[in-house]
Amino acid sequence: GWEKHWLLNLVVHPAWFGVADIISSFISISHFLISAAILELTGTHDTKGTWKSSITLPCVYGPSQDFVQQTVIWTLVRDQSPATVFRRDNSGDHIMLSRYRGRVSVPKYRPGDVSLEIEKLEMTDSGHYTCKVTWRAQNNSLLTKERTTIVKVVKVSVTKPIIRAGNLGFTVPKGARTSLTCSANGSPPITYRWFKGEPGGNTVLVSNHAVLMFDSLQTSDTGKYYCEAENKASSQVKQQSDAVQLTVRDLTKPAATVPSSENKANTMANDIFIVVVLSSRPGSFLPLMLDFCFSQNTRNDRRRQTCSGINGKCKYEEGKPTVENNFMTQPVKENEYETISIKENIECKILVNAMESEYEVGDVQ
């Protein structure tokens, strides 16, 4: 460029230049060299891209107000045959190779970033890509720099898929809408299949999509599920996920409960009745039977709980019997006993009848 010619004339014909010219020229050259250093292109030397996926080949520089970008050219060298893939100039962006149309682009609104973005990589996209940028200086001189990146497109086998549940998790109510998502890594396209059952057992194919949808869950949907992923990599290996348990609960039916040992003991205690036989007076042959037949519910009849609803406080008050009393007896004042049973008990009635048949009324001789 002009810098080389100026330096050559300065060395060969120093008399042609005045001191002021020499100083001014040195300042201009220094400023030029500093600006040129700022415009250094940065990127990567080599990179790998996954077949059918996207890739970005970085090519970035620090913008300078002393230089205006003129052209950006991306070329590809494959099998010793160079070809221009992309060109940007004052007339706009141009994709030069038809097989890249609709798949490559360069950012427009990020100053200093002229990276090449390639979508839906093909195996034939492997090669040496060169980023070439030309700037125009304030003195109309041109500065060109370039950088090469080696790209290798590979096929990656699919990985073991994982299953993600919807927002409701793996335990969901009947009638709800939910989904199970199967995801795996690898070269696209990846195909998915869903099975109900467990790997290696009896299974039923339920879907050919990555997402297994349930619009209205039924209890019959309860069971184990797993998914299978496969792509077109060279290995052609199908990967299976672990099975997950999906549980559908019918909230309209109360859950069955198993009585605890404590509840069983309380139930038995409530059915116990006591018959106390006492003599009402000395020397009498005929015993006076006092029937103490009671249950837990009897005490509740005697004292009922009444809640006022204020501050959640409750009080107790004497209640009246609500059932017919078949065994009410007069208080035995001599022995200061009072009847406590006010509720009919079938078992108690049978036993009393049986005991009465074993005693006969008579006087002591």
From TrEMBL:
Family annotation (SUPFAM superfamilies): Immunoglobulin (SSF48726)
MF term (GO), any: complement component C3b binding
Record has Transmembrane helix as a keyword: yes
Residue intervals of the Ig-like domain: 53-149, 161-245
Keywords: Membrane, Transmembrane, Transmembrane helix
Keyword Oxidoreductase among UniProt keywords: no
GO biological processes: negative regulation of complement activation, alternative pathway; negative regulation of interleukin-2 production; negative regulation of macrophage activation; negative regulation of T cell proliferation
PROSITE patterns: IG_LIKE
Membrane-spanning residues: 15-39
Listed name of the protein: Ig-like domain-containing protein
